[in-house]
Every structure is written in C-alpha cells, then in structure tokens.
Q: What sequence folds into this?
C-alpha cells in the first residue's frame, strides 16, 4: 500500500485520462474546492472534452466513483487458496491500510467528503449503497467459507460483515474529519475481533473435520 498513486500507468484512452485528472484534482482540492476547471488543469487534452462529455462536476464525479468501484472490486484480494482467516485479514488490510502516503490519505479524505453528499443527494446515495453492498457481501462470503471450512465459529456472516464494515467506515471518517489518528487502533481491534469472535477453537475445528 505504499504506492504514490492509484494510477501507476499511463491512461488508456481519453476516459481514463479524465478519471486520472479527476483523481488528482480531488486529492488536491477535495470535493468542496473541486471544479471542472481544476480537473481540466490536470487533464492533458483539451478542456472542451470535459464540457462535451459532462454537464457538471457532480456528473463527472459520479462516473469517477463508478470507475473507482470497478478498480476496487478488481483489486480486492482473491486468495481462495488460503484459508478463510488469512483471506479475511488480507481484505481488511486492503480496505483499511495503516501506511497510506500523503496522496492516498488526501484521496481518502475526499472520499469521506463525497460520501457525505449521499445524505441529501439520491445519486450519491445509490452509488455508496452499491459500494457498501459489494464489500459487505465479499466480507460475508469469506466468513461463510470460514464457517464451512471449520476455521470460523458458526456466527451470522451478514452481521459480522456489517460490523467490520462499520468499523472501517468509522475509522476513515474520524481520521479524515478530526486530528485523531484512528486507523491503526481500529485495525488492531478488527484483528482482535477476528481472533476472539470468529476464529474457532482448536477443539471445535477438529470436531467439524
């Protein structure tokens, strides 16, 4: 998680170049300070292309969020060859990294700003609902697999996933909106939660096998 950018390669076409410019402008200015002009300042081609494809900032940002969700889905650790416990820990590390560089930290803060728009904007609400639904289902699927393998206790996978997702969102929001550094503490507590609440005792695992 120490890379300096979510876009490590040259953009593949105009659409990806627009998404990269949006990402850079969002990291620099946040949602409140973001304008089409500032996105255009990061865009290597004619700014008129932005105005041609998008009616305004929010239309562009909603497409950007969909683009980033596709990237997020593609980069979620897929480690079916590992046991469920290792797989779950890898997903939690991916979702709540403790070693963000300054650019990624700025981007995470901007995403917290964007999530706040969902309180009053139905389009943003729909996006973030879809995003959370995907991630919650992925977490629940790993917990369910762990139960089937005898690695995890017989817990409710959906409730476990909801709790972990809420903890992740809470840490991101608190760190983005206060002077408190919360990510490392919450990640440690999630690790403790997996160990104490999910991992099956050795005798229980042996009984299932």
A:
């Amino acid at each position: 998680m120490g890379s300096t950018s979510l876009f490590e390669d040259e953009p593949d076409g105009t659409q990806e170049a627009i998404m990269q410019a949006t990402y850079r402008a969002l990291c620099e200015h946040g949602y409140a300070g973001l304008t089409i002009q500032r996105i255009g300042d990061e865009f290597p081609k004619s700014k008129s292309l932005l105005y041609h494809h998008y009616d305004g900032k929010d239309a562009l940002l909603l497409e950007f969020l969909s683009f980033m969700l596709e990237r997020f889905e593609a980069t979620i650790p897929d480690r079916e060859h590992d046991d469920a416990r290792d797989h779950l820990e890898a997903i939690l590390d991916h979702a709540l990294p403790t070693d963000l560089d300054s650019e990624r930290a700025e981007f995470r803060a901007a995403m917290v700003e964007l999530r706040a728009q969902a309180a009053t904007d139905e389009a943003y609400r729909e996006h973030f609902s879809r995003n959370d639904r995907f991630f919650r289902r992925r977490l629940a699927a790993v917990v369910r697999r762990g139960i089937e393998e005898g690695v995890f206790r017989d817990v409710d996978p959906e409730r476990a996933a909801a709790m972990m997702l809420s903890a992740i969102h809470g840490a991101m929001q608190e760190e983005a909106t206060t002077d408190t550094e919360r990510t490392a503490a919450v990640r440690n507590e999630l690790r403790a939660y997996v160990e104490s609440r999910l991992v099956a005792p050795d005798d229980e695992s042996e009984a299932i096998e």
Observations:
- The first helix runs from residue 14 to 29.
- The chain has two domains: 8-75, 77-209.
- Residues 93 and 187 are 8 Å apart (CA to CA).
